[in-house]
Amino acid sequence: MLLTLEQFAEACNTNARLRQMNRDWSRTIAILPTDRPEVFWLTSKEGFIQAGQGPVNAADLQIRADHDIIVAVFSGTLSPTEPYNAGDLLVKGSQDDLMRLDIITLLIWGE
Amino acid sequence: MKHVVSVSLGSSRRDHQTGVVIMQENIQISRQGTDGDMVRAKDLIESLDGRVDAIGLGGIDRYLVVKDRRYEIQDAKALAGAAKITPVVDGSGLKAVWEPYVIRQLVARGVLEPAQKVLLVSALDRFGMAQAFYEMGFATVAGDLIFASHIDYPIASVEELEEFARKLLPDMIKMPFAMLYPTGSAQDQAPVENSYGKYFDQADVIAGDFHFIRRYLPASLRGKIMVTNTTTAADRELLQFRGLKTLVTTTPVLDGRSFGTNVIEAALVARSGTLPDDPQWDRVVMQAGLQWDVRVLNSLPDSGKGD
After folding, report:
1. How far apart are the C-alpha atoms of B141 and B134, rounded to whole Å?
2. Assigned CATH class of A2-109
3. Do B102 and B209 sit in the same domain of this protein?
4. Which residues of chain B are within 8 Å of residue A25 when distances are taken between CB atoms?
5. What average pLDDT does the structure give for chain B?
6. pLDDT digit string, tens, across residues B277-290
7. Which residue in B85, B198, B211, B237 is a FRET match for B78, CA 20 to 30 A apart?
8. Interface predicted TM-score (ipTM)
9. Which residues have C-beta within 8 Å of that of residue B153, sequence separation ≥ 6?
Protein backbone atom coordinates (compact mmCIF):
# COMPACT_ATOMS: atom_id res chain seq x y z
CA MET A 1 0.00 0.00 0.00
CA LEU A 2 2.67 2.53 0.99
CA LEU A 3 4.64 1.80 -2.17
CA THR A 4 1.51 2.35 -4.26
CA LEU A 5 0.82 5.69 -2.56
CA GLU A 6 4.46 6.76 -2.98
CA GLN A 7 4.33 5.91 -6.67
CA PHE A 8 1.09 7.86 -6.95
CA ALA A 9 2.74 10.85 -5.28
CA GLU A 10 5.73 10.59 -7.60
CA ALA A 11 3.45 10.45 -10.64
CA CYS A 12 1.78 13.64 -9.46
CA ASN A 13 5.03 15.39 -8.62
CA THR A 14 6.66 14.65 -11.96
CA ASN A 15 3.63 15.95 -13.85
CA ALA A 16 3.97 19.70 -14.42
CA ARG A 17 0.30 20.14 -15.18
CA LEU A 18 -0.76 18.44 -11.96
CA ARG A 19 1.70 20.52 -9.97
CA GLN A 20 0.13 23.64 -11.44
CA MET A 21 -3.38 22.39 -10.74
CA ASN A 22 -2.55 21.56 -7.14
CA ARG A 23 -0.44 24.63 -6.37
CA ASP A 24 -3.16 26.12 -4.17
CA TRP A 25 -4.56 22.82 -2.85
CA SER A 26 -3.31 22.12 0.66
CA ARG A 27 -4.92 19.03 2.09
CA THR A 28 -4.26 16.08 4.37
CA ILE A 29 -5.91 12.87 3.25
CA ALA A 30 -6.28 9.87 5.55
CA ILE A 31 -6.29 6.51 3.79
CA LEU A 32 -8.04 3.96 5.97
CA PRO A 33 -8.15 0.36 4.73
CA THR A 34 -11.19 -1.34 6.23
CA ASP A 35 -9.65 -4.80 6.26
CA ARG A 36 -6.17 -3.98 7.59
CA PRO A 37 -4.93 -2.35 10.80
CA GLU A 38 -2.46 0.00 9.08
CA VAL A 39 -3.44 3.55 8.14
CA PHE A 40 -1.78 5.82 5.60
CA TRP A 41 -1.84 9.42 4.47
CA LEU A 42 -1.28 11.72 1.57
CA THR A 43 -0.58 15.41 1.87
CA SER A 44 -0.75 18.06 -0.79
CA LYS A 45 1.09 21.33 -0.38
CA GLU A 46 2.24 23.91 -2.93
CA GLY A 47 1.72 21.50 -5.78
CA PHE A 48 3.59 18.55 -4.33
CA ILE A 49 2.14 15.33 -2.92
CA GLN A 50 3.73 13.23 -0.19
CA ALA A 51 2.72 9.80 1.07
CA GLY A 52 3.30 8.15 4.41
CA GLN A 53 2.12 5.60 6.95
CA GLY A 54 0.55 6.26 10.32
CA PRO A 55 -2.31 8.22 11.80
CA VAL A 56 -2.88 11.91 11.03
CA ASN A 57 -4.66 14.61 12.94
CA ALA A 58 -7.49 16.59 11.37
CA ALA A 59 -7.59 15.03 7.93
CA ASP A 60 -9.46 17.10 5.35
CA LEU A 61 -10.50 13.98 3.53
CA GLN A 62 -10.93 10.38 4.69
CA ILE A 63 -10.95 7.52 2.24
CA ARG A 64 -12.18 4.12 3.42
CA ALA A 65 -12.22 0.95 1.36
CA ASP A 66 -10.80 -2.51 1.24
CA HIS A 67 -7.02 -2.59 0.83
CA ASP A 68 -7.24 -4.02 -2.67
CA ILE A 69 -9.65 -1.33 -3.86
CA ILE A 70 -7.45 1.45 -2.53
CA VAL A 71 -4.40 -0.06 -4.17
CA ALA A 72 -6.30 -0.44 -7.45
CA VAL A 73 -7.52 3.15 -7.39
CA PHE A 74 -4.14 4.66 -6.57
CA SER A 75 -2.32 2.48 -9.07
CA GLY A 76 -4.71 3.33 -11.88
CA THR A 77 -6.20 -0.11 -12.47
CA LEU A 78 -9.62 0.99 -11.21
CA SER A 79 -11.26 4.38 -11.56
CA PRO A 80 -12.55 5.79 -8.25
CA THR A 81 -16.03 6.35 -9.66
CA GLU A 82 -16.92 2.66 -9.95
CA PRO A 83 -16.31 1.64 -6.31
CA TYR A 84 -17.64 5.02 -5.16
CA ASN A 85 -20.93 4.54 -7.00
CA ALA A 86 -21.12 0.96 -5.73
CA GLY A 87 -20.61 2.07 -2.14
CA ASP A 88 -17.32 0.19 -1.86
CA LEU A 89 -15.26 3.37 -1.57
CA LEU A 90 -16.39 5.76 1.13
CA VAL A 91 -15.16 9.31 1.17
CA LYS A 92 -15.69 11.77 3.97
CA GLY A 93 -14.90 15.34 3.02
CA SER A 94 -15.83 17.89 0.44
CA GLN A 95 -17.22 16.96 -2.94
CA ASP A 96 -14.68 19.25 -4.58
CA ASP A 97 -11.79 17.34 -3.02
CA LEU A 98 -13.27 14.04 -4.10
CA MET A 99 -13.70 15.35 -7.63
CA ARG A 100 -10.13 16.63 -7.68
CA LEU A 101 -8.72 13.28 -6.60
CA ASP A 102 -10.75 11.61 -9.32
CA ILE A 103 -9.45 14.07 -11.91
CA ILE A 104 -5.85 13.60 -10.75
CA THR A 105 -6.05 9.83 -11.11
CA LEU A 106 -7.70 10.12 -14.53
CA LEU A 107 -5.10 12.58 -15.77
CA ILE A 108 -2.31 10.23 -14.71
CA TRP A 109 -3.86 7.01 -15.97
CA GLY A 110 -6.88 7.93 -18.05
CA GLU A 111 -7.32 7.16 -21.76
CA MET B 1 -50.41 22.18 -33.17
CA LYS B 2 -47.23 20.37 -32.24
CA HIS B 3 -46.38 20.43 -28.56
CA VAL B 4 -42.98 20.01 -26.98
CA VAL B 5 -42.06 20.01 -23.31
CA SER B 6 -38.67 20.65 -21.77
CA VAL B 7 -38.28 18.59 -18.62
CA SER B 8 -35.55 20.31 -16.67
CA LEU B 9 -33.50 19.38 -13.64
CA GLY B 10 -33.32 23.11 -13.06
CA SER B 11 -35.42 25.24 -10.80
CA SER B 12 -39.19 25.23 -11.27
CA ARG B 13 -39.05 28.97 -10.67
CA ARG B 14 -38.03 29.35 -14.31
CA ASP B 15 -41.06 27.46 -15.68
CA HIS B 16 -42.89 29.07 -18.59
CA GLN B 17 -44.68 28.34 -21.80
CA THR B 18 -44.94 30.05 -25.14
CA GLY B 19 -44.98 29.37 -28.85
CA VAL B 20 -42.34 29.37 -31.53
CA VAL B 21 -42.56 29.29 -35.29
CA ILE B 22 -40.33 26.63 -36.83
CA MET B 23 -40.44 26.13 -40.58
CA GLN B 24 -43.65 28.13 -40.89
CA GLU B 25 -45.43 26.11 -38.23
CA ASN B 26 -46.43 27.20 -34.74
CA ILE B 27 -45.16 24.94 -32.02
CA GLN B 28 -46.32 25.14 -28.44
CA ILE B 29 -43.44 24.84 -26.01
CA SER B 30 -43.35 24.65 -22.25
CA ARG B 31 -40.68 24.13 -19.67
CA GLN B 32 -41.20 22.20 -16.43
CA GLY B 33 -38.44 22.29 -13.86
CA THR B 34 -38.09 19.51 -11.31
CA ASP B 35 -35.73 21.27 -8.88
CA GLY B 36 -32.93 18.76 -9.30
CA ASP B 37 -35.18 15.80 -8.50
CA MET B 38 -34.17 12.97 -10.87
CA VAL B 39 -37.08 10.75 -9.84
CA ARG B 40 -39.59 13.52 -10.47
CA ALA B 41 -38.00 14.23 -13.84
CA LYS B 42 -38.18 10.56 -14.81
CA ASP B 43 -41.81 10.31 -13.71
CA LEU B 44 -42.66 13.43 -15.69
CA ILE B 45 -41.00 12.09 -18.84
CA GLU B 46 -42.91 8.82 -18.44
CA SER B 47 -46.17 10.73 -18.10
CA LEU B 48 -45.45 12.82 -21.21
CA ASP B 49 -44.35 9.88 -23.34
CA GLY B 50 -46.68 9.47 -26.28
CA ARG B 51 -48.63 12.62 -25.36
CA VAL B 52 -46.30 15.28 -26.78
CA ASP B 53 -44.32 15.49 -30.01
CA ALA B 54 -40.85 15.80 -28.49
CA ILE B 55 -39.30 16.14 -25.06
CA GLY B 56 -36.29 18.28 -24.27
CA LEU B 57 -33.92 17.39 -21.46
CA GLY B 58 -33.04 20.60 -19.66
CA GLY B 59 -30.46 21.28 -16.98
CA ILE B 60 -28.58 18.16 -17.99
CA ASP B 61 -26.61 17.11 -21.04
CA ARG B 62 -27.13 13.65 -22.43
CA TYR B 63 -24.33 13.78 -24.94
CA LEU B 64 -20.99 15.54 -24.79
CA VAL B 65 -19.66 15.61 -28.33
CA VAL B 66 -15.94 16.29 -28.57
CA LYS B 67 -14.43 16.13 -32.01
CA ASP B 68 -15.38 12.71 -33.35
CA ARG B 69 -16.36 11.14 -30.04
CA ARG B 70 -19.71 11.24 -28.27
CA TYR B 71 -19.93 10.57 -24.55
CA GLU B 72 -23.28 9.74 -22.96
CA ILE B 73 -23.95 10.86 -19.40
CA GLN B 74 -25.46 7.91 -17.57
CA ASP B 75 -27.96 9.87 -15.49
CA ALA B 76 -29.29 11.51 -18.65
CA LYS B 77 -29.44 8.19 -20.45
CA ALA B 78 -31.62 6.84 -17.65
CA LEU B 79 -33.92 9.85 -17.88
CA ALA B 80 -34.25 9.63 -21.66
CA GLY B 81 -34.97 5.93 -21.36
CA ALA B 82 -38.16 6.74 -19.49
CA ALA B 83 -39.75 7.67 -22.82
CA LYS B 84 -40.47 4.75 -25.13
CA ILE B 85 -42.38 6.59 -27.87
CA THR B 86 -41.62 10.29 -27.85
CA PRO B 87 -38.12 11.39 -28.90
CA VAL B 88 -36.04 12.91 -26.11
CA VAL B 89 -33.30 15.36 -27.03
CA ASP B 90 -30.84 17.42 -25.02
CA GLY B 91 -29.75 20.26 -27.31
CA SER B 92 -26.33 18.80 -28.07
CA GLY B 93 -27.27 18.32 -31.72
CA LEU B 94 -28.19 21.97 -32.03
CA LYS B 95 -25.11 23.15 -30.16
CA ALA B 96 -22.82 21.12 -32.43
CA VAL B 97 -24.25 22.55 -35.65
CA TRP B 98 -25.75 25.93 -34.87
CA GLU B 99 -23.44 27.54 -32.34
CA PRO B 100 -20.22 27.35 -34.42
CA TYR B 101 -22.19 28.91 -37.27
CA VAL B 102 -23.39 31.71 -34.99
CA ILE B 103 -19.84 32.45 -33.87
CA ARG B 104 -18.64 32.66 -37.48
CA GLN B 105 -21.56 34.92 -38.37
CA LEU B 106 -20.86 37.18 -35.41
CA VAL B 107 -17.30 37.57 -36.67
CA ALA B 108 -18.47 38.18 -40.23
CA ARG B 109 -20.80 40.91 -39.01
CA GLY B 110 -18.22 42.56 -36.79
CA VAL B 111 -19.90 41.78 -33.47
CA LEU B 112 -16.87 39.68 -32.51
CA GLU B 113 -13.24 40.10 -33.56
CA PRO B 114 -10.64 37.31 -33.43
CA ALA B 115 -8.24 39.64 -31.60
CA GLN B 116 -10.53 39.47 -28.58
CA LYS B 117 -9.88 37.22 -25.60
CA VAL B 118 -12.59 34.69 -24.80
CA LEU B 119 -13.57 33.01 -21.56
CA LEU B 120 -15.69 29.97 -22.39
CA VAL B 121 -16.87 28.91 -18.95
CA SER B 122 -17.48 25.33 -20.02
CA ALA B 123 -16.34 23.93 -23.33
CA LEU B 124 -16.86 20.19 -23.04
CA ASP B 125 -20.61 20.73 -23.41
CA ARG B 126 -20.08 23.21 -26.25
CA PHE B 127 -17.18 21.81 -28.18
CA GLY B 128 -18.49 23.23 -31.45
CA MET B 129 -18.43 26.74 -30.07
CA ALA B 130 -15.00 26.17 -28.52
CA GLN B 131 -13.62 24.83 -31.77
CA ALA B 132 -14.99 27.82 -33.67
CA PHE B 133 -13.32 30.25 -31.27
CA TYR B 134 -9.99 28.43 -31.36
CA GLU B 135 -10.01 27.94 -35.13
CA MET B 136 -10.82 31.58 -35.80
CA GLY B 137 -7.85 32.67 -33.76
CA PHE B 138 -9.49 33.89 -30.56
CA ALA B 139 -7.26 33.50 -27.52
CA THR B 140 -9.68 31.27 -25.64
CA VAL B 141 -9.66 29.97 -22.08
CA ALA B 142 -11.93 27.00 -21.44
CA GLY B 143 -12.99 27.07 -17.80
CA ASP B 144 -14.36 23.57 -17.32
CA LEU B 145 -11.99 22.66 -14.51
CA ILE B 146 -12.30 26.08 -12.91
CA PHE B 147 -16.05 26.45 -12.76
CA ALA B 148 -17.23 22.83 -12.63
CA SER B 149 -14.52 21.37 -10.40
CA HIS B 150 -12.98 24.43 -8.71
CA ILE B 151 -9.52 23.57 -9.95
CA ASP B 152 -7.79 26.79 -10.95
CA TYR B 153 -6.43 25.59 -14.25
CA PRO B 154 -7.36 27.32 -17.51
CA ILE B 155 -7.42 25.17 -20.64
CA ALA B 156 -5.91 27.25 -23.42
CA SER B 157 -5.90 25.12 -26.55
CA VAL B 158 -8.28 22.87 -28.41
CA GLU B 159 -5.70 20.07 -28.29
CA GLU B 160 -5.56 20.19 -24.51
CA LEU B 161 -9.35 20.33 -24.35
CA GLU B 162 -9.53 17.19 -26.48
CA GLU B 163 -6.95 15.48 -24.26
CA PHE B 164 -8.97 16.31 -21.13
CA ALA B 165 -12.09 14.94 -22.81
CA ARG B 166 -10.38 11.67 -23.73
CA LYS B 167 -8.96 11.19 -20.25
CA LEU B 168 -11.79 12.46 -18.06
CA LEU B 169 -15.11 11.96 -19.79
CA PRO B 170 -15.23 8.15 -20.05
CA ASP B 171 -15.23 8.08 -16.26
CA MET B 172 -17.00 11.32 -15.38
CA ILE B 173 -20.11 10.45 -17.36
CA LYS B 174 -20.72 7.75 -14.76
CA MET B 175 -20.79 10.23 -11.88
CA PRO B 176 -24.01 11.54 -10.39
CA PHE B 177 -24.80 14.53 -12.59
CA ALA B 178 -25.26 16.82 -9.59
CA MET B 179 -21.51 16.45 -8.97
CA LEU B 180 -20.78 17.91 -12.40
CA TYR B 181 -23.28 20.73 -12.75
CA PRO B 182 -25.54 22.86 -10.53
CA THR B 183 -29.08 21.53 -10.52
CA GLY B 184 -32.29 22.61 -8.81
CA SER B 185 -32.02 25.38 -6.25
CA ALA B 186 -28.26 25.60 -6.83
CA GLN B 187 -29.18 27.39 -10.07
CA ASP B 188 -31.01 30.12 -8.19
CA GLN B 189 -28.16 30.94 -5.85
CA ALA B 190 -26.84 34.46 -5.96
CA PRO B 191 -23.41 35.01 -7.48
CA VAL B 192 -20.83 33.57 -5.08
CA GLU B 193 -17.64 35.13 -3.80
CA ASN B 194 -14.77 33.51 -5.64
CA SER B 195 -11.26 33.98 -6.84
CA TYR B 196 -12.04 33.48 -10.50
CA GLY B 197 -12.72 37.12 -11.27
CA LYS B 198 -9.34 37.36 -13.00
CA TYR B 199 -10.59 35.14 -15.80
CA PHE B 200 -13.60 37.37 -16.36
CA ASP B 201 -11.45 40.49 -16.09
CA GLN B 202 -9.00 39.21 -18.71
CA ALA B 203 -11.74 38.34 -21.19
CA ASP B 204 -13.37 40.57 -23.77
CA VAL B 205 -15.95 37.90 -24.55
CA ILE B 206 -17.62 35.68 -21.96
CA ALA B 207 -19.33 32.67 -23.45
CA GLY B 208 -21.04 29.44 -22.55
CA ASP B 209 -23.47 28.12 -20.01
CA PHE B 210 -25.34 30.92 -18.29
CA HIS B 211 -25.75 29.14 -14.96
CA PHE B 212 -21.98 28.94 -14.61
CA ILE B 213 -21.61 32.54 -15.75
CA ARG B 214 -24.25 33.83 -13.35
CA ARG B 215 -22.89 31.86 -10.41
CA TYR B 216 -19.44 33.44 -10.75
CA LEU B 217 -20.50 36.76 -12.21
CA PRO B 218 -18.04 39.53 -11.33
CA ALA B 219 -19.11 42.95 -10.11
CA SER B 220 -18.16 44.61 -13.36
CA LEU B 221 -18.72 43.42 -16.91
CA ARG B 222 -17.97 46.83 -18.32
CA GLY B 223 -17.39 46.83 -22.06
CA LYS B 224 -17.67 43.05 -22.41
CA ILE B 225 -19.66 40.89 -24.79
CA MET B 226 -21.50 37.78 -23.62
CA VAL B 227 -22.52 34.84 -25.83
CA THR B 228 -24.92 32.49 -24.05
CA ASN B 229 -28.58 31.52 -23.81
CA THR B 230 -31.36 30.75 -21.29
CA THR B 231 -31.35 34.34 -20.11
CA THR B 232 -34.49 35.98 -18.78
CA ALA B 233 -35.52 39.64 -18.57
CA ALA B 234 -34.27 39.69 -14.98
CA ASP B 235 -30.92 38.28 -16.11
CA ARG B 236 -30.62 41.01 -18.74
CA GLU B 237 -31.29 43.63 -16.08
CA LEU B 238 -28.56 42.13 -13.94
CA LEU B 239 -26.10 42.07 -16.83
CA GLN B 240 -26.97 45.61 -17.82
CA PHE B 241 -26.46 46.76 -14.25
CA ARG B 242 -23.04 45.08 -14.19
CA GLY B 243 -22.09 47.04 -17.30
CA LEU B 244 -22.25 44.36 -19.98
CA LYS B 245 -21.99 46.00 -23.38
CA THR B 246 -23.61 43.39 -25.62
CA LEU B 247 -25.61 40.25 -24.93
CA VAL B 248 -25.74 37.66 -27.70
CA THR B 249 -28.06 34.70 -27.27
CA THR B 250 -27.61 31.83 -29.68
CA THR B 251 -31.26 30.85 -29.46
CA PRO B 252 -34.26 33.05 -30.26
CA VAL B 253 -35.73 35.31 -27.59
CA LEU B 254 -39.37 34.38 -27.02
CA ASP B 255 -41.54 36.25 -24.55
CA GLY B 256 -38.47 37.96 -23.17
CA ARG B 257 -36.30 34.92 -22.61
CA SER B 258 -33.90 32.95 -24.75
CA PHE B 259 -34.73 29.30 -24.61
CA GLY B 260 -32.36 26.46 -23.93
CA THR B 261 -30.96 24.57 -26.88
CA ASN B 262 -32.90 21.47 -25.77
CA VAL B 263 -36.18 23.32 -26.27
CA ILE B 264 -35.33 24.52 -29.76
CA GLU B 265 -33.92 21.12 -30.68
CA ALA B 266 -37.12 19.44 -29.47
CA ALA B 267 -39.18 21.88 -31.56
CA LEU B 268 -37.03 21.12 -34.60
CA VAL B 269 -37.44 17.39 -34.10
CA ALA B 270 -41.19 17.75 -33.61
CA ARG B 271 -41.55 19.84 -36.76
CA SER B 272 -39.17 17.98 -39.06
CA GLY B 273 -39.39 14.44 -37.79
CA THR B 274 -35.61 14.32 -38.13
CA LEU B 275 -33.51 13.24 -35.16
CA PRO B 276 -30.09 14.76 -34.39
CA ASP B 277 -28.25 11.57 -35.35
CA ASP B 278 -29.84 11.58 -38.81
CA PRO B 279 -27.44 12.50 -41.64
CA GLN B 280 -29.96 15.20 -42.67
CA TRP B 281 -29.85 16.91 -39.27
CA ASP B 282 -27.34 19.62 -40.20
CA ARG B 283 -29.49 20.63 -43.16
CA VAL B 284 -32.62 20.73 -40.97
CA VAL B 285 -30.90 23.03 -38.48
CA MET B 286 -29.50 25.36 -41.10
CA GLN B 287 -32.77 25.63 -43.02
CA ALA B 288 -35.01 26.07 -39.99
CA GLY B 289 -34.82 29.84 -40.00
CA LEU B 290 -33.37 30.04 -36.50
CA GLN B 291 -32.27 33.42 -35.26
CA TRP B 292 -29.70 34.49 -32.75
CA ASP B 293 -30.24 37.69 -30.85
CA VAL B 294 -27.86 40.60 -30.32
CA ARG B 295 -28.80 43.23 -27.74
CA VAL B 296 -26.72 46.23 -26.83
CA LEU B 297 -27.26 46.71 -23.11
CA ASN B 298 -24.82 49.55 -22.53
CA SER B 299 -23.93 51.57 -25.60
CA LEU B 300 -21.06 53.62 -24.16
CA PRO B 301 -17.77 51.91 -23.32
CA ASP B 302 -17.79 53.22 -19.77
CA SER B 303 -21.50 52.94 -19.15
CA GLY B 304 -23.18 50.58 -16.71
CA LYS B 305 -23.18 50.58 -12.97
CA GLY B 306 -21.03 47.58 -12.33
CA ASP B 307 -18.39 49.11 -10.12
Report:
1. 9
2. alpha beta
3. yes
4. 151
5. 91
6. 999 999 999 999 99
7. B211
8. 0.90
9. A17, A20, A21, B145, B146
